[in-house]
Each structure stands twice: as structure tokens, then as C-alpha cells.
């Protein structure tokens, strides 16, 4: 099983990167949170990976750390959650934020991911509620007790920001990519979050 990849970054796309290993250019599918961390092309990169085999082909999925990779593997083990939905979830939050959302039963936060409706969000929470890493439980408890200094922006605000950006003509994927870059260590108001995303779009143009 291929558990990691190390090579030269040749290109990045909306949902994948091309990494050259030896004489081969390997396409690695990855969430936006990972793709956004990759530096300029031509440099060495390392990703934790999941090798996925299906009847219609094989795919390699890459992540910036093992925690996100392990979270992805948990997600695709749930009935109704395939690699595409798992990547969508990890494109708008990292593993720690995801597990805290599960521990806090924050279905709204899961719902900001493309392809995750209310029923699927509830199903994911039900399936993983008793299977969380210890640190996720500690983080959720600290947040509930007000022990964190800043907290994180809640799912309802992200959902409203997504809706507002799409109303301005941006696609769901574009909105997700911009919101993923927002600071995760403090609470952001809706207006601040939308402004951050718009500035991100402006820098890309």
C-alpha cells in the first residue's frame, strides 16, 4: 500500500496535483486545504496518501498530514460517503475541526461541504460519534467550557458566507477554496468572512 509520496510538484489544479517521482508524473487528488498549502511548482513536496482501488480504476489521494489522511479513510468507510464527498469535507475544514464538529453535533458545519445535506450530515455524526480520537474530544470539551482563547467560526456563519458568495456569482468550489483560507484560530463575523473571501478572489485576478 502506498502511504506517502515524495517528489517534485509539477502542477496543481482544482482538485489534484501532479507530482513527479522518478520518471513518472503522478496525479494525486487532494482537498483544497492541502492544495492551498503546496508551494510553487518545481519544489519538493511530501504528502501522506491513501491508495484507493475500485472496479473502474485506481486513484491516489494526498494530504498534508496523516491526521487528515486518517480522517479521510474514516469518512469513506461510512455508507453513502465516497472519496468525492470526503474530499469536499476536508476542503472546508481540517481533521481537528471536523472531529470537533462531530463531538459537538455541529451538523451545520458539516453542511457547508459540497454534497453534504442534512440527512448525510446527521448520518456522519451518528456513525462517528463514538469513534473520535481523544484529542478531538478534549478540544470539543474545551470549546464548550469557553477554555479556548478565540474559538472558531461556527458552521452557520460559513454556510451563510457560502450562500452569499454563490449569490455574487462564484461557484461552490470557488467559494469553498476562498473560505478554506480564512483563519481557523478565531471567530470571524459573517461580513468579515465574506470580505476575506472577496479579497482572496481579488488577489487571484
Describe this structure in words.
It is a single chain. By secondary structure, the chain is an alpha+beta fold. The chain folds into 3 domains: 4-64, OB fold (Dihydrolipoamide Acetyltransferase, E2P) (Beta Barrel); 67-148, Orthogonal Bundle (DNA polymerase, domain 1); 151-205, Helicase, Ruva Protein, domain 3 (Orthogonal Bundle), CATH 1.10.8. The chain contains 10 helices and 5 strands; from the N terminus they run βββαββααααααααα. It has helices at residues 32-35, 66-76, 83-92, 95-103, 107-110, 118-128, 134-144, 155-167, 172-180, 190-204; strands at 4-12, 16-21, 24-29, 44-54, 57-63. The protein has a 5-stranded antiparallel β-sheet with strand order 3-2-1-4-5. Helix 8 (155-167) crosses helix 9. The longest helix has 15 residues, at 190-204. The termini are far apart. The model is unreliable at 137-151 (pLDDT under 50).
Amino acid at each position: 500500500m502506498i502511504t506517502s509520496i515524495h517528489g517534485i510538484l509539477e502542477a496543481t489544479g482544482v482538485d489534484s496535483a501532479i507530482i513527479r517521482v522518478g520518471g513518472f508524473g503522478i496525479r494525486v487528488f487532494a482537498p483544497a486545504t492541502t492544495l492551498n498549502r503546496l508551494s510553487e511548482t518545481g519544489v519538493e513536496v511530501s504528502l501522506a496518501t491513501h491508495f484507493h482501488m475500485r472496479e473502474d480504476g485506481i486513484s491516489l489521494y494526498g494530504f498534508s498530514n496523516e491526521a487528515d489522511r486518517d480522517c479521510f479513510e474514516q469518512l469513506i468507510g461510512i455508507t453513502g460517503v465516497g472519496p468525492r464527498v470526503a474530499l469536499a469535507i476536508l476542503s472546508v475544514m481540517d481533521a481537528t475541526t471536523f472531529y470537533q464538529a462531530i463531538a459537538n453535533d455541529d451538523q451545520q458545519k458539516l453542511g457547508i461541504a459540497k454534497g453534504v445535506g442534512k440527512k448525510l450530515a446527521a448520518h456522519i455524526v451518528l456513525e462517528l460519534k463514538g469513534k473520535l480520537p481523544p484529542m478531538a474530544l478534549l478540544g470539543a470539551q474545551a470549546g464548550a467550557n469557553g477554555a479556548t482563547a478565540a474559538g472558531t467560526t461556527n458552521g452557520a456563519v460559513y454556510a451563510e458566507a457560502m450562500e452569499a458568495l454563490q449569490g455574487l456569482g462564484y461557484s461552490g468550489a470557488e467559494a469553498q477554496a476562498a473560505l478554506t483560507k480564512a483563519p481557523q484560530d478565531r471567530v470571524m463575523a459573517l461580513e468579515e468572512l465574506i470580505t476575506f473571501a472577496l479579497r482572496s478572489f481579488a488577489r487571484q485576478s
